[in-house]
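Example (one chain per record):
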Amino acid sequence: MTTIDERCAEILPHATEMLAATVSAGYSATGIPSALSGARALRAILARGPEGITSAAYLEWHGTAVGMIDNVIQLLETGEVVKARELMTDPRLGLHGLTIACAGQPGW
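Predicted structure:
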């Protein structure tokens, strides 16, 4: 089982990589592979499910996160970096719920 502390620590480097790389990819396509790497790593973590996590904020976010990350990956694969970043930063669908769930954790 995974705790919210463990999950937030595990997700942090990949979410950070994904967000930072989409900013640079908006200026140069060289950032797309890094953004895809972060998104795919995050998708793999989410695929393990939320077992053991009791944070209501995380569980709410996790319920829509898999679909959001799948869409981000598809957008990045087709070079639509700006749309991918818009989706990730959408207050309702993006990473916002994750930041609420992980608030107070190291690095968040």
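Caption: The domain at 4-102 is CATH 1.20.120 (Four Helix Bundle (Hemerythrin (Met), subunit A)).
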